[in-house]
Amino acid sequence: MIDRAALLGGVPMKAVSLVLLTFQNSALILIMRYSRTMPLVNGHRFFSSTSVLLNEVIKLVISAAVALYDLSSNASPNTPATSILSELVTTMFAGDSWKLAIPAALYTLQNSLQYLAVSNLDAATFQVTYQLKILTTAIFSVIMLGRVLSVKKWASLGLLTLGVAIVQLPQDTAQVTIEDSKTGEEAKIGRRALEQIGALGSFAVRSLLGSDAPAEQHLYARESKSVTPEEQNRSLGLIAVLIACAISGLAGVTFEKILKQSPPSQKPVSLWVRNCQLSFFSLFPAFFIGVCWVDGKEISKIGFFAGYNFVVWTAIMFQAGGGLLVALVIKYADNIAKNFATSISIIVSALASAYFFEFQITIVYMIGTAVVIAATFLYSQPDAPPPTKTVEYEESDIGRQSTELESARPLMMQPMRSDSTELERPASPTK
């Protein structure tokens, strides 16, 4: 339930949460982008696999701390701390909670792809393109959950896709023109793009089938060694963000389906316990696949924290803390307000990219961004009820619409309500 009356220092919590989320959304993408393009730290660039693992560790610690606080608040004053901790552990692993390992693994891969994307795309383009996760979530909800979308929603999704396509046009054209004029090596550019795209596909195949190939041959090992502006490939970044959007939609809908299929007799689980579950299960693919298998050989040579500095730690903390801010928005505001914060952050990211990273804001980019923002707001609007059976339609439509909006959020953005009819789960805005 939305609490609009809460205040913090006389300021409504709705306003506080929206301002903080807008700042966090904008700053996170910019910091992640800079962390992948800044000068090397002691000759090394940090491994994205280690940052993904640390991000999940921090989320688990924060979620566990809040969950323990909630349990202690509801327990009797004389309840020992060990009993409260035991209750949390029991709740985390009760029933079929192991099924959450599936969306957790998907989101771990998504986080890795986000680092690859921001290594090859400017922050502003990434921010706009990543809104396609709304489209992928809607498509998977129709396929896997049998959800029916109105004509207006399909139109808004088409508009969203058009806006993202418009944003891509000038940068791609400009980049190819500049590269050709400087080097005249169009064939070389094409070969490099095909090699990197092939590496992405090879990594996906190896992830599914397993491989004894050396760690240096893996895409993420190559990507985490060094990414200079001259080596960035826009096509690879675009492919990475599109795959990340698809995985985001699949993971979100899978998460929703798992929870809806849970036995009705199962004890309701709080949102913070859900956070603990997902962060815990994310540790395994992040560590064994990312840190050990993909980058293990390189990490053993130069160290787990090679390439780390204040910027890298700031990016990790911003990403881990994003879920708390989204949870505040969900609690004290609404989806339209959250979309407003996201829209403002897109504009801020574009302006900051132009100032700090020499990003060119063109008319075409502004048109595409405006279309994306308009489509996002249009999709979040509830459908108008028909003239007949108004009461019955409104009740069913509100429930369906709420579920659609919740499932469109990234995984850690969705707190879980006790009745399991609406899925809200906190997490970083890039998820």
From TrEMBL:
GO terms for molecular function: pyrimidine nucleotide-sugar transmembrane transporter activity. The chain crosses the membrane at residues 15-34, 130-149, 236-255, 276-296, 302-328, 340-357, 363-380. GO terms for cellular component: Golgi membrane. Residues 386-431 are annotated as: Disordered. It is found in: Membrane. Its main location: membrane. It is a multi-pass membrane protein. It holds the Pfam family Nuc_sug_transp. The keyword Glycoprotein does not apply. Keywords: Membrane, Sugar transport, Transmembrane, Transmembrane helix, Transport. This is Nucleotide-sugar transporter. It comes from Periconia macrospinosa.
